[in-house]
Description:
The chain contains four helices and no strands. The chain is mostly helical.
Amino acid sequence: MAEDHRESDHSHAFVLDERYALRAVTLGLISAFLVGEVIAAVLGHSLALFADAAHMSTDVVRSRSVLGPYAWLGDRPKVVGLRPPASGDLSAAANGVALAAISLLIAVEAIQRLINPHHVRGSLVLVVALVVL
């Protein structure tokens, strides 16, 4: 005799908790600002906007890497080594390495721009700074 599975007291549906939803909204906003800032950096020839966009990209990657385990684990019991704080620790280490590499690339580009200056559209940079920052 088979049991009617519809009458069970549990659900297999994934339910978004409030923390996950807030993190997802934050990730979406940061990603949108990142895309806008990269476009403005290209149009304005601004190293400062490129630098901020690079920093923001590490925030997007970190936020996404922390958000993933929340979606995957959902309301299941936390497993040692797979809980979100552990992934946060790994993403913080990767974030530090990425920021160091980005800093080196920005320093090289800054030196090149000292030798061969580029015209920067200051009004565009100011507008982006006021909106994003």
